Amino acid sequence: MKQYIIGLNGLRAIAVFFVIISHRFPEDHIFRSLPLGDYGVNFFFVLSGYLISRGLFFQLKSYDNNFNLNVKILKKFFIKRFLRIFPVYYLLLLFLYLTDGIIGNHFKENILWYVLYAANFLIYTQDKWFGALAHLWSLSVEEQYYIFFPIVMVFLFRNKILMLLITLIIIGTIYPFLIDGKSNILTISCVNSFSVGGLLAYIEINKNSFLAPFYKYILYLSILMGVIIICNNYYFTIPFFSERLAISIIAVYLITLCILKENSFVVKKILDNNFLNFVGIISYGVYLYHNIVPKYLNFILLKMNIKQYSFSYSLFLLQTSLIIIISYLSWILFEKPILKLKKHLIN
Given this model, what pLDDT does residue 310 score? Predict the structure, then answer.
């Protein structure tokens, strides 16, 4: 199993830029004619599903099926996830708590939802978005999935992984059509994206000879999904069409391209260029801060009596540059040093 796959950081970077554009550009801008923010989040879900499943499937293939070894596999997984996600997230929550007057959005009264990684349930139960904190719903979904999927898979479906993945794809695709409100932000509505990524990981680790044929089929299917997405957004609404599943299929095609065609023009020259690779490395921080930094920047500009605009390209460039700088500093000074603790905690 290849430890590092060229191009995945580029996909992360594109996904996070999709999200930033969706939150910064006005609704009538041409860049908002497609729901790029949703696409970016779904790309992240597929990438997460692929990468965590890939590691877990490799571990399961390497160890016998007994309780102690299963616990060991899960222990390694949760330590890695804890070190990558929790420290910087809770540091941000502390900062927001101490500066609550700036961030607003009822943060203090809802803080328990954020501490428990339940922002998606907060939004669903209140049926409203919480401004600069709204994007935290997807991080809650990811954390809930990280807890649910490995435990269920390792202890209940170790010998029926393919059945589990297909079942989750079906459930995640159907569920949003059955429940009213903002049900598409509930974890059960997102498991299809994670599981499509997990399906690719399953083929790569357990059925590697099928990977090349899978690439051909997923290419044709991705083209079809692209056509349907364009029709659905620009020409006519297609009933019961899951755009999340369609985007997930396209995302899986691009990941498969990175696995099998690392020397192709798209992978080597586009996805693996220095800038996208750099942004991809710090993409967790970029996503975490991208909605919050502009709020604090506006506060500073207001204090300096500098005229503010609802949107301008120069302001967008300033905000995005500042987000990237802060994310880089966060990565170098805080996130990366903490990740080095893995070698001391995992044996």
Answer: 76
> Mean of the pLDDT values across residues 305-312?
78
Nearest alpha carbon to residue 272 among 9, 2, 18? 9
Count of structural domains, the chain: 1
In a domain, 235, yes or no: yes
SS3 state at 104? coil
Tokens coding 329: 């500093």
Separation of CA 149 from chain center: 16
Beta strands in 95-210 (DSSP E): none
* Cα maximum dimension of the chain: 66
3-state SS assignment for residue 221: helix
**Residue closest to 143 by CA, chosen among 77, 59, 198, 199:** 77
Full domain range(s) for residue 234: 8-345
Rounded CA-CA distance 199/269 in Å is: 27
Per-residue pLDDT tens for 225-243?
999 999 999 999 999 999 9
